[in-house]
Write a structure and sequence with these properties.
414 residues, alpha+beta, 5-stranded mixed β-sheet, binds adenosine-5'-diphosphate
């Protein structure tokens, strides 16, 4: 059944246009006949009536075609019927005109032959055009089906008319975006899995050693001296796990954007000298030289001192940890172009180019510090980056293996 109610606006619009075209065409033709053929007024009236009638019949046929062509399912059938109706309307119009003009039977038959020939050619073109359109539409349909099956690398060849080529291009763009989004989602899923593995590994090792030590104490296997040693180690393990969980909490807050900074006007110079002072004994135990200098004046500016102290602690702590005995660790701070730069360099073991790309990723530990004895959980730099970026700043690292590393972070002076 044809849904006339749904088609009503289209039919009305086409009907209105047809009326304008038929009237306009008839008036122009009569005007031309008057000026060009100098036809008498009586003939002009008849011509007008005839043109209006034949135009109205043609327009009705077109409107009927629009209504009925909705029932034709294929594009090919719709286009062929459109050409066919065009040819039929032309033939009927010309034959009727011929009859009115009292053409001889011979002339009429000849005219009919010519018309059938042109009609056939028109229909052939219709079929050819519909075949071209069909091919492109089929290609798009196949592409969409492949994508729906999960073959996101599918692309279609842009071709055919301008609009269809544009559609194919939009289709390909959509496919590229889908592929990228899917790859990102897969990467995130992989990162999440790795994170869970890393967290469980980092908690399982100290928990296992805690269990062994508590068992040794409760079973009475450990003597008094060993018990004291175990208790000290247990304290260390608990401290390690507390630190790890705090780091994880901080990282998750940074990731989710839930971290609230508490900025205040403070002196970075004072914060640096306090941090250096607090790390002196740690560096001293490795006979390292810990040196700090402020170039020029750094005015007080707004930042969260606790968080920036955390950044300084993480970077200086790493420098101490990854620099051998008697090494030199240098901190320089200066103000330039609306930013304060803090540069921390050491002459320690350095970082390989492959590691350098990833050290700011959570749980990433350099090749040499994979064993727990020589390194932390691999969260220090991820947290430092998160905190610096939360201040609107940035952080980077440069290093040469065997020569040392330089970490630089910059904070905007607001
Ligand atoms: P970790 O807890 O392992 O120190 P970080 O996130 O602080 O974790 O650092 C990640 C990795 O970067 C470390 O495992 C180490 O390999 C490398 N690294 C960081 N700072 C330095 C440094 N100053 N010298 C050499 N390697 C460093």
């Amino acid at each position: 059944m044809i849904n006339i109610r749904k088609l009503q606006p289209v039919l009305l619009k086409t009907g209105g246009r047809a009326l304008v075209v038929v009237l306009g065409g008839a008036i122009s033709a009569v005007g031309l006949a008057a000026v060009w053929l100098k036809a008498p007024a009586d003939d002009l009236g008849k011509l007008f009536l005839y043109l209006i009638t034949s135009g109205a019949v043609s327009a009705t046929l077109i409107i009927l075609w629009i209504a009925y062509s909705q029932r034709l399912v294929s594009l090919r059938a719709q286009i062929t019927v459109a050409y066919l109706s065009g040819a039929v309307i032309t033939i009927v119009n010309i034959l009727v005109t011929g009859r009115l003009m009292f053409l001889s039977a011979h002339d009429q038959n000849l005219l009919m032959l010519l018309l059938l020939f042109s009609g056939g050619i028109a229909i052939f073109f219709g079929l050819f055009l519909s075949e071209q359109l069909n091919r492109q539409v089929r290609q798009l349909t196949q592409g969409a089906t492949e994508i729906a099956r999960g073959k996101l690398e599918t692309r279609v060849l842009p071709g055919g008319s301008y609009e269809l080529a544009q559609l194919a291009q939009a289709f390909n763009q959509m496919a590229v975006q889908l592929e990228t989004a899917f790859a990102t989602q897969r990467e995130m899923e992989q990162a999440r899995k790795e994170l869970v593995v890393a967290i469980s590994h980092d908690l399982r090792t100290p928990l296992a050693s805690l269990r062994l030590m508590t068992e040794a104490i409760t079973d009475g296997v450990a003597d008094e001296k060993q018990t004291a040693l175990f208790l000290e180690r247990m304290h260390g393990e608990v401290q390690y796990m507390t630190g790890l969980i705090e780091d994880l909490f901080e990282l998750s807050q940074l990731d989710s954007g839930a971290l609230k900074l508490t900025p205040e006007r403070a002196s970075l110079t004072d914060l640096i000298s306090d941090t250096l002072e607090s790390l002196k004994s740690q560096a001293g135990s490795k006979k390292q030289t810990l040196h700090g200098q402020i170039e020029g004046e750094i005015p007080e500016f707004s930042f969260d001192p606790r968080k920036i102290q955390r950044v300084l602690n993480n970077l200086l702590g790493n420098a101490i940890r990854y620099t051998p005995e008697k090494g030199i660790i240098n901190l320089t701070a200066r103000q330039q172009n609306g930013f304060v730069s803090v540069i921390i360099s050491d002459n320690g073991e350095g970082i390989s180019a492959a590691d350098l790309e990833q050290i700011f990723e959570p749980f990433y530990r350099g090749e040499r510090s994979r064993g727990r004895e020589s390194g932390g959980a691999g969260l220090g730099l991820a947290i430092a980056r998160g905190l610096v970026e939360a201040h609107g700043g940035h952080i980077n690292a440069q290093s040469q293996e065997g020569k040392g590393s330089t970490f630089t972070f910059e904070l905007p002076i607001k």
